[in-house]
Amino acid sequence: MIKDLTLPLSLLRPVRIRELQESALCLSYDKRGIHILVERLEGRSTAVFLNGDYAFRSFEIDVTHDWKGLALTDYDIVVDLASAFDSENQFPIPGAIAVGPEGDRLGVSVKDHTGFLDKETLKLNADVPEIATGLRTSFMRWAFRIREADQFQLIWIDAKPDDGVD
Question: Sign (positive/negative) of CA torsion 33, 109, 161, 127?
Fold first, then answer.
């Protein structure tokens, strides 16, 4: 996923995800290459796998999670307009970003208390304008945009087109 990405050291910080106090994209440096989005809201941290066998599954982070990686906190989220669709009357699609009256949200799959996977949305920390009731647009393809001086690099994410529930 991030094969040819080069970034200045000043943008990266080695971390354990349990120690993050802010939202971040965590890029792993092990051979599995798993990347995790950590969203920190209201004193709680939630992690979402962005690739690999568990792509778009989320979990609440606690003190036992010892994953290490390089945290990137200075990014924007951009969307591929060609991947847009009306999602007002649809369940969340894992990996798709939805923009609607409740703000911006990422579709994820989560295990409920019975161990079954369910679909939910995770609030993102992006800045979006107010949107009227009855309108929701989702994007199947989106990216983290990382700025370095006057240039940008993109890390693209593609949603799962299936139902995302195993």
Answer: negative
Residue 86 and residue 102 in one domain: yes
CA distance 122 to 106: 5
All residues at 6 or more sequence positions from 34 whose CB lies less than 8 Å from its CB, including other chains: 28, 49, 51, 52, 67
Does 166 map to a domain? no
Domain membership flag for residue 67: yes
Beta carbons within 10 angstroms of residue 56's beta carbon: 25
Say yes or no: 49 and 88 in one domain: no
pLDDT in tens, 88-117: 887 778 888 888 877 777 777 666 556 666
